[in-house]
Amino acid sequence: MMTMRSRFEPDRQLTARMAVTMFLLGLVYVAFIAALIVLLKSVVLVVVIAAALLVAQFWFSDRIALYAMHGRFVSREEQPELHGVIDRLCATADMPKPRVAVSEMDLPNAFATGRNADHAVVCVTTGLLRRLETDELEGVLAHELSHVAHRDVAVITIASFLGVIAGLIVRFAFYSQLFGGRNRDQNTAALLAIVMAVSALVYALSFLLIRALSRYRELAADRAAAMLTGKPSVLASALTKVSGDIARIPTQDLRTAQAFNAFFFTPALGPGTALASMFSTHPSLERRLEALAAISVELGEAA
Q1: Which residues hold Zn(2+) (predicted)?
Q2: Proportion of the chain above pLDDT 70, given as a percent
Q3: pTM of the complete model
Q4: Comparing 102 with 10, which gets the higher pLDDT?
Q5: Is 1 part of a structural domain of the chain?
């Protein structure tokens, strides 16, 4: 799943996990659509609309993400240091340079989006630019560029969207039951209940599969970035600094950005408890720092 031109370290486990996740999600959704057809007799319109929305999100995912995060494209004249770091990393990795964007948010974070390396966007917040040193910024951007090189951004975009569709059907069936129950016979009510149960099951399975893949892809991106820059301790420093500063951002601002947790360098809101960490989009800070420390030893990097 790596681009032929990229020098980011390949991760066969990530490639295998992405393939398995998409295969399992495909099976789940084929069964889901089949169940809907049997239960509702005709869901052609629903399927067509869902497919159209999926294509639209996949094709315009970069614009959607930038709009939601209040990001805008910036020129080299506006952000010379940011462009310079990305230029150096892309030259080192031998990959196409993505478009560069900045989000006017104090939340220190970054994300990459786009359907492939030729249509990718790397966006950083002004909060991140203000807090990090140049070498720390380089580590974060290398992390985001590795997501583009590994092509896991496109996989997460597609996988997340399928889960959203199942979630919407759950809500539709629930509100149909809640507000239209008196006008329906018992068979219709039972049918809606079954549809809601099947949709909920599909959403739960999708949620677990996507979270498991998302946590691993973050570790893969950390490793790829550390191997490309040769500075795992600097990436660990950036990770520690960003995670600590996020804890001081007002909760209301964090909740606004939480919908994009799966795409961020670090989550806007952490898992909080051991149980919640099982459903987190990212590994714990401790787990990521341990992995980077092991890479430091592997590279023989000075403490």
Answers
A1: 143, 147, 218
A2: 74
A3: 0.79
A4: 102
A5: no
